[in-house]
Amino acid sequence: MADEGAVPEPRRRSVQCVSPKGLHRMAYLEWGDPRNRDVLVCVHGLTRCARDFDALSRALCSQFRVVCPDVAGRGDSDRLAEPMLYGVPQYLSDMVALIARLDVETVSWVGTSMGGLIGMALAAQKGTPVKRFVINDIGPVVAKAALERIGSYLGKAPDFPTIEEAEAYIRDVSAPFGRHSDAEWRFLTEIWVRKTAEGKYRAHYDPRIAEPFHATMPKGDLELWPVYDAIQCPTLVIRGADSDLLARTTTQQMAVRGPKAKLVEIPEVGHAPTLMHADQIAIVRDFLLEGAQT
């Protein structure tokens, strides 16, 4: 019998996905009872990875089977043969393959930034499996200035001689995450890098994801209202109060059109809330469990 006091740990799995350039393996972490039909899929931001959701997964895996994929080109997943395939259409296809592997009809979804865009694309589909949706600091209008800020460092991270220098870099580019303890910043760094054969630390994502990002940079703000308006499931939008990517005016519109999302703002945080802290986890848990009770 399992030790009730044991700290939950995930199972590492993968699923084969297809692209126009062949097959690739998408890795994912699975938390909780593998027989649980109540599945929560958590998808990370542009350069991050599945382990961003460790704290949230540990908190929720007694109620949900929590599944956290490494999007293609990140973490333990394969890199794509063709860099221009790094985009929402391919990621959407991969997530459909993942849900088929999980053998469930419906899922709840938590998506941070890029993970929220992928979730929007899936939730907008006819016959979508998404039954409850948490969008973390992204929306149907993405500010051009924020895209340019992200583009200024995307794919350009150097090799770091020490983990301390890698952490200093993460603290700088991820300062909008808000206040975190020294241990949390170290964790956010350690899951983002891998040690090379030369003993240096390198960002563990394919730098070629910058190619389609820059090639498809809009001339103004990115607008996706038709996608958002097609979503019908209960939706919660979490916004960092200081976010430069998701404007308050956009969330106000999100509350009155499409799925008419519930809104929560996290003070003293920009893009994006990490969902690592107890107050942020409680916001997600309460919304998801409200759905489970109806």
Summarize the entry for a quick read.
The protein has 294 residues and is an alpha/beta fold.
Characteristic terms for this protein:
two-stranded antiparallel ribbon; 10 helices; 294 residues; alpha/beta; single chain
Describe this structure as you would to a colleague.
This protein has 294 residues and is an alpha/beta fold. Helices cover 32% and strands 21% of the residues. It has 10 helices and 12 strands. The protein has helices at 54-60, 88-102, 114-123, 144-151, 163-173, 182-190, 210-215, 225-229, 248-254, 278-292; strands spanning 11-19, 22-31, 39-43, 65-69, 107-112, 130-136, 141-142, 193-195, 201-203, 222-223, 235-240, 262-266. The strands form 3 sheets. Strands 1-2-4-3-5-6-11-12 form an 8-stranded mixed β-sheet, with helices on both faces. A two-stranded antiparallel sheet has the order 7-10. Strand 5 (107-112), helix 3 and strand 6 form a beta-alpha-beta unit. Helix 2 crosses helix 3 (114-123) and helix 5 packs across helix 6. The protein is globular. The mean pLDDT is 95.
